[in-house]
DNA sequence: CGTCGATTTGACCAGATGGTCAAACAAAGA
DNA sequence: TCTTTGTTTGACCATCTGGTCAAATCGACG
């Protein structure tokens, strides 16, 4: 990704397209989304949209790649020097914040993985796997030192993903079950409790 | 649903269609799936398929309804008379077994909810909500009696869903992260630990 | 066998969809 | 103003997709 210089107009339109595409792709998935809907939501004609991105897949790819790195930031920041319990609980908090603030991105990713991750499979088996290897080892080192309870690093990380992303991805279901009021209410408390109990010695 | 008498041929073909449709819908989602693919996987021609089901949506609906009740069985069986901790842990176990044995059904449902549950929204706000109301109350009664730790019944149930379904729905991701060997290995232990620690007084 | 209802299929259709292209239009500098 | 470059669009296309239909084929039973 090099920073190609862009005119004012280019920047505006590309941004509008990304925004519209995120909306549509996250709701409908890749195959369910249509260029017409994206174009119309971006306030452009379809040919005009294709003037900025060479294909439907190109837009999708770009969104996905953008999300991926954001998504891993909180895990990347797990600090070997910090207090183990605080580090992990903070990881959970930041991940939950992401779900709260970027539910569309979360669903975009969920849709992709559900399909079998045809476009990000390599990334999963490369970058993601490497990062998890590293951080799982860190967690297990903490456990071995008796600074947190014995726990599988990989499964702990998976649990954090499962719990936090569920609130974004299955929003409709959560909403149905939580009744009126903010469905997110209490989620933070609940997860803090859950993970604290899991890892505290 | 009444039991319409069916010929041998009808039973065989309807079963083949259901099986093929489950496969395709769970991988591609509703919009991504095509009648051609389903028909071909069922070993029938497309018009022949439409002789048995009147539309794409009809097949989908039927699958979804079938899954829904199975999906709630374990929760339904939470027994007020049983030992609280054992009841909840057993619920987790059965839910994880479902994920292990019926990953396609899990993904089918996940796809539907991700889309905003257009076809099962009513079910979620009706049957599901009622059941969760009842069981969440039960859990919180146990908590109030000091038989398990204080915990939100609704959030506990959501956690069970999140944790167990994640292994089926995001299989590709789990597999990438868990490295070689059975990705499910250790999941049961981990979840047992996690939920035991969460609810034990 | 012959008949009648159940089953299967090839041909077809209308609408949607991703994508192309040449022409029209705007912007900005010379 | 003229020219050049960047931007936008209407018309169009090939393909895919859900669905129809009349005709052909099959199967069971008298």
TrEMBL record, chains A, B:
- Entry's PROSITE patterns? HTH_TETR_2
Report keywords, A-Z: DNA-binding
Question: Where is the DNA-binding region?
Answer: 34-53
InterPro entries for this protein: Homeodomain-like_sf, HTH-type_TetR-like_transc_reg, HTH_TetR, Tet_transcr_reg_TetR-rel_C_sf, Tscrpt_reg_YcdC_C
- GO biological process terms, semicolon-separated: negative regulation of DNA-templated transcription
Q: Which organism is it from?
A: Palleronia abyssalis
Q: Which residues form the HTH tetR-type domain?
A: 11-71
* Name of this protein: HTH-type transcriptional regulator RutR
Q: Which GO terms describe its molecular function?
A: DNA-binding transcription factor activity; transcription cis-regulatory region binding
Pfam families under this entry? TetR_C_3, TetR_N
Q: Which residues cross the membrane?
A: none
Please indicate if the UniProt record lists DNA-binding as a keyword: yes
């Amino acid at each position: 990704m090099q920073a190609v210089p862009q005119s004012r107009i280019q920047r505006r339109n590309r941004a509008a397209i990304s925004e519209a595409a995120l909306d549509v792709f996250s709701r409908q998935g890749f195959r369910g989304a249509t260029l017409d809907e994206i174009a119309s939501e971006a306030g452009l004609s379809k040919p005009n949209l294709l003037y900025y991105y060479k294909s439907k897949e190109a837009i999708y790819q770009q969104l996905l790649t953008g999300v991926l790195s954001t998504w891993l930031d909180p895990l990347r920041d797990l600090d070997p020097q910090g207090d183990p319990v605080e580090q992990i609980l903070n990881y959970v908090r930041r991940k939950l914040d992401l779900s709260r603030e970027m539910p569309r991105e979360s669903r975009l990713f969920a849709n992709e993985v559900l399909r079998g991750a045809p476009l990000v499979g390599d990334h999963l088996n490369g970058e993601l796997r490497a990062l998890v290897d590293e951080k799982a080892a860190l967690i297990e080192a903490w456990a071995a030192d008796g600074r947190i309870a014995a726990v599988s690093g990989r499964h702990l990380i998976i649990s954090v993903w499962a719990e936090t992303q569920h609130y974004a991805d299955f929003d409709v279901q959560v909403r149905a079950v939580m009744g009126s009021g903010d469905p997110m209410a209490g989620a933070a408390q609940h997860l803090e409790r859950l993970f604290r109990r899991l890892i505290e010695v």
